[in-house]
Amino acid sequence: MARLHLTRHLFVFFPQLEGRELVVNGNTAREIVDGLDAVAPGIGLYVCDERGRLRTHVNLFIDKQMVKDRRALTDPVGADADVHILQALSGG
Amino acid sequence: MMASHSSAGIPAAAQILVATRKGTFFVEKTATGWQPRLVGHAGTSVNFVARDPYTGRYWALLGHGHWGAKLSVSDDGGATWADAPAQICFPEGARFIAQDMYEDASSEHGVGWKISTKAATLQKLWVIGFGPGGAVYVGTIPGGLFVSRDGGASFQLNLPLWNHESRGGDLFASEGTGETKWFGTPASEGGDFAPGIHSIVVDPRNPQHLMVAVSTAGVIESLDGGASWHSRNKGMAMDHTPEPEAEWGHDTHFIEQCVGDPDHLWQQNHAGVFYSRDRGASWTLVSQPDAGVHFGFPVAAHDSDGRTAWLVPARGDNQRMALDGGLFVARTRDGGSTWTQLRDGLPQGCVYDVVYRHALAQQGGVVAFGSTTGNLYVSDDGGDHWSTVANNLPPIYSVRLA
């Protein structure tokens, strides 16, 4: 079980998530992203590519720790964790 | 609005669809001229926008940067847009042979060069094409042709082209030949140098006859709906390489077919302008450098007269901007024997625009083009006279007509 905190940029594409408290079941970062995708179908492909890897300029933090396994998202997520998904800032 | 008609009976375009670095714009003809408006994807990079003439559905090819490439559709004329129900994904096990430069301190040049086999993930949606019966074709970087037979409810990677011997064979099953004759394009998002499919032609006489063009490989044809593919590069010459007439490796920038005379194909290539009167079996160089016609990215074919085409030449390839500070469209009406520079209404001083490969289009006498400087121009008389639609759009990636 984790509380999910999303960059507001994702609310442009998934406005139904804005202002909602997002609590998702899962023991790994992968399960959290999959759980998020069940709440908002399609969002998993925004966060990860079609091989399930975290996209290059997207970051995921578990209790303030940056995810280590960007390829398979096996990092454990403890009970009552806070998970942040955000993007690298870039110009243009 | 009354639709006007060209002499050939093709309706004049009523709508200009503009894909830009910061959103999708539609331009419609009103009593006071062509009026642009932002219709969607504000702030998002849009590579290509087109209308499926068989269904009326609008498609936008987005490059979100952080969030990946997405297909977006509108079924209400552009009023609302949503992610398409099926997104383009490379299947598990899809790989391609890539050439990479890498840091190498032991090399006297500081860099090395290696051939590697990479897992394919979608980097860029580049072009979309349509056929009858729910056929939708999407060209991507790395060079995949994705095909839908159900109007876009699902897409499959065309495997005969992906596994083609010219790019190393079937890499799902083995390491293949280990050699590719397809090279890359810097047009990918994310910086990878990978090949890309930027042109899709569906023959109006026979939808089993498909052509695609690839940067950098050349023109490729299928006569059986995509079950098999072969090169169509005869007559083209890569004047920048040690083997100019090689079967593969041609840097075709864009091809377009004359829909009313489909044996006639036009091609703007890195190495000049090429024309085919035999459905791509052979190509003839029809550049006329002293008329400013040689390098550029886009080409537009006439609706019915196979000998007529338009270009927006650029100073190439070491500058890639307007020639000598003035903007012109070049038109031929005799199969490239002679070219006319059309400048009336276009800026002729201090101009440095470049027009990308998808950013020139013609339909029923309406010709429109846009530049990466955010300038959009239209002609209602086949290019004889031009007017400015907008000067401050975001960088323009694609201009299509509907």
Description:
The complex is a heterodimer of chains A (about 90) and B (about 400). The relative contact order of chain A is 0.25. Chain A has a single domain, classed as Roll (Ubiquitin-like (UB roll)), CATH 3.10.20. Chain A has about 90 residues and is an alpha+beta fold. Chain A is built from three helices and five strands. Chain A has a five-stranded mixed sheet with strand order 2-1-5-3-4. Chain A starts with a strand and ends in a 5-residue tail after the last strand. The longest helix of chain B has 4 residues. In chain B, strand 26 and strand 27 form a beta hairpin. In chain B, about 0% of the residues lie in helices and about 40% in strands. Chain B has a four-stranded antiparallel sheet, with no helix packed on it. In chain B, strands 4-5-6-7 form a four-stranded antiparallel sheet, with no helix packed on it. Chain B has a four-stranded antiparallel sheet with strand order 10-11-12-13. Chain B has a single domain, classed as YVTN repeat-like/Quinoprotein amine dehydrogenase (Methylamine Dehydrogenase, Chain H), CATH 2.130.10. The N terminus of chain B is likely disordered. Chain B contains one helix and 30 strands. At the A-B interface, helix 1 and helix 3 of A face loops of B.
Helices and strands, with pairings:
The complex is a heterodimer of chains A (92) and B (402).
Chain A lengths: L1 E5 L2 H5 L8 E3 L4 H11 L4 H4 L10 E5 L2 E2 L14 E7 L5
Parallel strand pairs in A: 1-5
Antiparallel strand pairs in A: 1-2, 3-4, 3-5
Chain B lengths: L14 E6 L2 E8 L2 E8 L4 E7 L6 E6 L5 E6 L7 E2 L11 E9 L7 E9 L4 E8 L3 E7 L3 E4 L7 E2 L1 H4 L33 E7 L7 E6 L2 E5 L7 E2 L20 E6 L7 E5 L2 E5 L7 E2 L10 E6 L7 E5 L15 E4 L7 E3 L17 E4 L2 E5 L5 E4 L7 E4 L5 E6 L1
Antiparallel strand pairs in B: 1-2, 1-30, 2-3, 4-5, 5-6, 6-7, 8-9, 10-11, 11-12, 12-13, 14-15, 15-16, 16-17, 18-19, 19-20, 20-21, 22-23, 23-24, 24-25, 26-27, 27-28, 28-29
